[in-house]
Amino acid sequence: MRPKTDEHEKLDVLLVVRLSKLEKRLLLRRSREEGYRTLSDFCRAKLVKRREIRKVEVSEEFVMISKKLDYDLNKIGVNLNQVAKAINSNQIYQLNKADQMVFQQLLQELRNCFSILQNYMDMIE
């Protein structure tokens, strides 16, 4: 469940600014180039002088490893869903040795993924 937003952090006040179509396109392009998720985030950061979002350049190796990790994590999720379906489809289901082995392998894969991601995060900082 999503944590509750503090009262002073709620974004509940609307500010209307009129722009030309060209100005809006320029702002959208600039916000994407600077790595902001939304135009609102970009405008808030520029208007209120919040902490800037840093754009981090990564190597081709990092991109390849990230894609492989994404693929591996997806496979792990598929395996977990299959195990959950098997457990939930039977009224009484006991985990056998094969199930325990699968869980051990999944846990090890998750640890490997986390370790690789942590190494890259350490390099970024």
Brief write-up:
The protein is an all-alpha fold. It contains 4 helices and no strands. The protein has 2 domains: 7-48; 60-124.
SSE layout:
Elements: H1 21-33, H2 39-48, H3 60-89, H4 97-124
Considering the chains and any ligands shown, give keywords for the structure.
mainly alpha, 125 residues, elongated, 2 domains, 4 helices, 0% strand
Q: How many extended strands?
A: 0
Q: What is the domain total for the residues?
A: 2
Strand content: under 5%
Main pleated-sheet profile:
none
Q: What structural class do helix, strand and pairing data support?
A: mainly alpha
Number of helices, counting only DSSP H or I runs of 4 residues or more: 4
Unreliable segments of 5+ consecutive residues: none
- State the shape: elongated
Give the ordered list of helices and strands: HHHH
Helicity range: 55-70%
Mean pLDDT figure = 81
The value of Rg in angstroms is 22 Å
The end-to-end distance, rounded to whole angstroms, is: 29 Å
Characterise the protein shown here.
With 125 residues, this protein is mainly α. The chain has 2 domains: 7-48; 60-124. It has 4 helices and no strands. Helix 1 (21-33) packs across helix 2 and helix 3 (60-89) packs antiparallel against helix 4.
